[in-house]
Design goal:
The complex is a heterodimer of chains A (112) and B (114).
Chain A (H helix, E strand, L loop, with lengths): L3 E4 L2 E5 L4 E7 L4 E9 L6 E6 L5 E4 L2 E6 L4 E6 L8 E9 L5 E3 L3 E6 L1
Parallel strand pairs in A: 2-11
Antiparallel strand pairs in A: 1-3, 3-8, 4-5, 4-9, 6-7, 7-8, 9-10, 9-11
Chain B lengths: L3 E4 L2 E4 L5 E7 L5 E7 L6 E8 L2 E4 L6 E3 L9 E3 L8 E8 L8 E3 L3 E5 L1
Parallel strand pairs in B: 2-11
Antiparallel strand pairs in B: 1-3, 3-8, 4-5, 4-9, 5-6, 7-8, 9-10, 9-11
Classes of the chains: A mainly beta (112), B mainly beta (114).
């Protein structure tokens, strides 16, 4: 039973463009929403995260937008670069046991 | 990576065999996790351990077993009861209380059943 739905499954963006990945969750008992970046053959690494009392968080070219009422959050990558080509996962942490529930992932390709 | 070692990187198994995947960490983190990753799916939790000598089943524990005898080590055994074990296996650690509550991942082991 998937509680975090991520879209799109794959995304191609031109260099310098904006990449947008969306996630929606069903359970209101989540208290932390991280995004992870994974390169082929490697483990995921934390990219940026947000808590539900904040509507936006920005770190460099990466921004999370969070809409608590709609139960949605998104990752925006500004000025996308070929080095950003990777698979991105959103996740939501259950407040009760701190387990992460993962989205299915988005394969992002940045074309030079 | 960085403080979490998984071995081997690639593992081939014949049907009916048990295999053990190694996960070692030198980050002094209390919590350790095993995830399974399949193409087109998110990470699914197999087992987790919050403290030495204690572990709990995750969402897909059937056909797997673990032990946590040392803080640094959390090996995963894939038994012959696991019907479709071919996948990428990831070990992770976490220290509760960090502001970011980040999980750190190892480089993974790719298991293929022949």
């Amino acid at each position: 039973q998937q509680q975090v739905k991520q879209s799109p499954q794959s995304l191609i963006v031109q260099k310098g463009g904006i990449s947008i990945i969306n996630c929606a969750y069903e359970n209101t008992a989540f208290d932390y929403f991280p995004w992870y970046q994974q390169f082929p053959g490697k483990g995921p690494a934390l990219l940026i995260a947000i808590r539900p009392d904040v509507s936006e968080k920005k770190e460099g070219r990466f921004t999370i937008s969070f809409n608590k009422s709609a139960k949605q959050f998104s990752l925006h990558i500004m000025d996308s670069q070929p080095g950003d080509s990777a698979t991105y996962f959103c996740a939501a942490r259950a407040a009760s046991n701190y387990q992460l529930i993962w989205g299915a992932g988005t394969k992002l390709i940045i074309k030079p | 990576d960085g403080g979490i070692t998984q071995s081997p990187k690639y593992l081939f198994r014949k049907e009916g065999q048990n295999v053990t995947l190694s996960c070692e960490q030198n980050l002094n983190h209390d919590a350790m996790y095993w995830y399974r990753q399949d193409p087109g799916q998110g990470l699914r939790l197999i087992y987790y351990s919050q403290i030495v000598n204690d572990f709990q089943k995750g969402d897909i524990a059937e056909g797997y077993s673990v032990s946590r005898e040392k803080k640094e080590s959390f090996p995963l055994t894939v038994t012959s009861a696991q019907k479709n074990p071919t996948a990428f296996y990831l070990c992770a650690t976490r220290t509760p209380g960090r502001p970011t509550d980040e999980q750190f991942f190892g480089p993974g082991t790719r298991l293929t059943v022949l």
